[in-house]
Amino acid sequence: MNKVIEFLEYEIFKIGSFSFTFGKITSTLITILITIFLLWLIKKAIFRKKSFLSIDKGNLYSLFQIIKYLVWIISSLIILETLGFKLNVLLAGSAALLVGVGLGLQNTFNNFVSGIILLFERSIKVGDILEIDGDVVKMERIGLRTSSAKNRDDIIIIIPNSLITSNKVINWSHQSDKTRFKICVGVAYGSDVELVTKVLKESALESRDITDKDSILVRFVNFGSSSLDFELLFFSRNIFRIENLKSDIRMLINKKFIENNISIPFPQMDVHFKSDATGHFSKK
Fold it and tell me: Mechanosensitive ion channel MscS domain spans which residues (predicted)?
């Protein structure tokens, strides 16, 4: 027993007045392993299958992230105390340094606060589909400083949390289980308006991803400069891949327009030439 005590108290190295022994290093490793194991148990308990029946997956993820950060903070404090660092002395001595660092890391601190707000407020959760700066993304992870999301090109984007909390963000997942979208199209003047309306509705009805097909609506919205302008409105649950659905419907519209001799005009400009007294021509 004495040999074990001597081994644990054996000094490996020393920094100033702090000595690092086998016992302290062993205690640190044990604390880290216990923390990892405890978090694994908590994660298993939170994400067990029965939990999904009553709690949203995004809420569960936010809850686990908060617990994880709290556990690691407590674990870090225990490790510092084990190694012999006096936390009150350490904080008092580093107060001036922390002020200077805080001024230099305002953006980083802002992102940390924003991350805490996102995790506690839960207005945005993992799995939500957001529109940020015109880009539609699906949230993959919410961290304390940054969050990661996947856009429609399956590219992972790292987003500072302050960008989410301080800017205008559209959360498509806060809609009902279906969302309304529209496709704009123009046809040549002289086209049969009723036939155009029929063709547009038929094109939407042939798509399998359209929800509530009785709600498909065609609007004659304007007399454009070179076309009669229409809107095709429909509901769909396929929010994240809606551009693929729109592309399929546009191809159907183009095919049916060709079959029914409905033309889509291109912008035209009339140029008039007027001669002056000298016989020269000028454009109007």
Answer: 107-174
The C-alpha atoms of residue 164 and residue 73 are separated, in whole angstroms, by: 25
Name the helix (H) or strand (E) containing 186: strand 179-187
Specify whether the CB–CB gap between 140 and 150 falls below 8 A.
yes
Residue 129's domain spans which residues? Answer: 121-173
Per-residue pLDDT of the chain (284 residues; tens, 9 = 90+): 566 566 556 666 666 566 667 777 788 888 889 999 988 888 888 777 555 444 556 566 766 777 888 888 888 888 877 777 666 655 555 555 556 555 555 677 777 778 777 877 777 888 888 888 878 899 888 887 788 899 888 889 898 888 888 888 888 776 666 788 899 999 999 999 999 999 999 999 888 888 878 888 999 999 988 899 999 999 888 888 888 889 999 999 999 999 999 998 877 666 666 666 565 555 55
Number of compact structural domains in the chain: 3
Closest CA to 199 of 266, 261, 267, 265: 261
Main-chain dihedrals φ then ψ at residue 231, nearest 5 degrees: -125, 130
Domain-embedded: residue 169: yes
Q: Which phi and psi (to 5°) does residue 267 adopt?
A: -60, 135
Phi, psi of 125 (to 5 degrees): -125, 165
Residue type, 135: D
Give the pair of three-digit tokens for residue 147: 């969050």
CATH number, domain containing residue 127: 2.30.30.60
Q: Provide CB contacts within 8 A for 126, sequence distance 6+.
A: 57, 58, 61, 62, 139, 140, 141, 142
Give the Cα separation of 195 and 191 in Å (integer). Answer: 8
Phi, psi of 137 (to 5 degrees): -135, 160
What is the rounded CA–CA span in Å between residue 225 and residue 158? Answer: 43
pTM: 0.55
In this structure, what is the dihedral angle of CA atoms 165, 106, 76, 79, given to the nearest 10 degrees?
A: 180
Give the closest residue to 46 by CA, choosing from 34, 33, 56: 56
